[in-house]
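Worked example 4.2. Below are the chains of a multi-component assembly; read each line carefully before continuing.
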Amino acid sequence: MSAGRLWPERLRFDLAATLVLCAALAIVPIFVQSPYTLGIILVSVYFAIIALAWNLLAGYAGQFSLAPAAFAMLGAYTTALLDHYWHVPLVVGIPAAIVSTALLGWVLGKLVLNLSGPYLALTTLAFAEIARVVIGNSYEFTRGDQGMHVATLTQSRVGYYYIFLVTLLAVIALLYVLLRGRLGRFMMAIRDDPVGASSRGIDVVRTKSIAFCVSCALCGLAGSLYGTFSQLVSPELGLLQQTGLVLSMVVIGGMSTLTGSLLGALLVYLSSEWLRGFGNVQIIVFALLVILFARYLPGGLWGLVAGRLRPAAKR
Amino acid sequence: MSLLSIEKLSVHFGGVAAVDDVSFDVREGEVCGLIGPNGSGKTTVLNLLSGYLAPRAGRVRMQGDDITGLAPDRLARRGVLRMFQMTRVFARMSAFDNLVTAGLARGVGEAESDRRAKALIDELTLGPVQFLDAGQLSGGQRKLLEFGMCFIEPPIVAMLDEPFAAVHPVMRDVMASFIRARHAQGATFLLVSHDMPIVVDLCQRAVCMNAGKVIAAGDIHAVLQDHDVIEAYLGESPDVGAAASLELGDPGRNAS
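Applying the procedure described above to all two chains together yields the following structure tokens:
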């Protein structure tokens, strides 16, 4: 499906498609009056940011981390703890979440640098679970499973909706710039063949570290914002189930494309809300879909659509 | 003048000396053959020279600098490039993007990488497949693509591991003329190959290994007529006709 076009053209096409989706999201509040429904779409945008971040690591750099939700949780707790203990304002607390998760991501990246495939996945999984359990059990410091109250940026739900949307746009712009430059090509080279990449002169260690750092920081940003929106931060943010949801979003939407992650996040989250009406079957449905997509449609839904939309190869 | 000096290089795998006290030179501007029977340690030497293995003992010097044990990516950025016997291309990027990526990795700017990639695509006859993902290319096309990736920025030394093995004759010719053209421009090659006619055709000098040791080195014709080399390839009790067949695949032609 991706045959016949050069990387800058592929990426530009991908960017254009994400901007169309963002434009559609921007006019949603005109038609959706219900705060409940708007809240659901807002949460799907939260997941879209995490899905884009995870896709950077897994889809472009080929590093299958199982810690995206944990980093969202760590970002949320950074802001919450700063607010709770030191009354640090959110304009500082939210950027602090980006910094702390970037640092932690860099450290995690260093730890797993020589690991690949299942070992990488298992190590990040262990990290994620340890982080969640430690936060859940540190009752004196974090109030454990009860969660912590956080300040909010605004009481307006529409306001928050646009804060999330602008953040999403900023994340897409950042990813576009990173992917368009040498870093994007180096990550894909490492994904396709790490030994080959190093033989061509690519610093595999440095490239992977940057990918981990950026991906984790974006998850941290999403988590931090989400905490201020819900005004409650709890270890539930870091549940493995949340990571599973992110993973299914990217696989169903389409790995290794920006649009696939965004589309997948919107479709999967909205349908998971809809599926709630049928009992707790979402996980079963998405797990099945992930298996089917991985087997029969590795390009995901967006791969299917893009194959038809994109003009035929020329030159 | 010696470009690459390999001095007493050794590496062991579980008690087996895969490369044992190997020394030889690669001179500037030559095509140096590295030959020897299967399992003689040729690829291991390439792995040592390209940074994928750390030697247990010995030194590698390039233009006088000690480059022993440098990481593969650092060596590549310094101009020590290699091709693999099993090609290593970036399967989900187009052939053209593979070349541009290789250029960027060597520190060439994007516009310039683009320009050079176009020229290499023409030279390597990859035009019809340049926009296909590299994973869709044939084995021979991938090898041509690897040539291009090594030469997007002229290497100081290019090390080729069996580039002609299992490749269509037409592409072998493209590769051979690519090597000749770059050699004429002054490029230095270390060529590992089993294909004696091509080795004789392209190389001025050769180093022959057997069981991890260098058994002969020097002028290509002299090496191929060396008693130990013939014995290593053909076993015991060689005769003069066998020596000729080792060199040209044509017994009698060189018999004297």
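Take a moment to check your reading of the output against the notes. Chain B touches chain A at residues 50, 52, 71-73, 76-77, 81-82, 84, 88-94, 96-97, 100-102, 104-107, 110, 131-136, 149 (CB under 8 Å). The radius of gyration of chain B is 18 Å.
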